[in-house]
Amino acid sequence: MADEDYKKLHPILSSVTQTYVDLYTNKPNEKNREQLIKLEQLLHEKLEKLKQAREAGE
């Protein structure tokens, strides 16, 4: 799948992935590492809620 197709199909996931890449490669310091950890936790919480909602809808 081409990058542009992936971005169109999964805009939120694509954006989160780009944020992770930017934080890891462009700004490698402790403050950004802590921010990344918080973002990862938030992402996992949101994905878990989506998973639960999908399972409840089935």
UniProtKB/TrEMBL annotation:
Keywords: Coiled coil. It comes from the Bacteria. Residues 29-56 form a coiled coil. This is Uncharacterized protein.
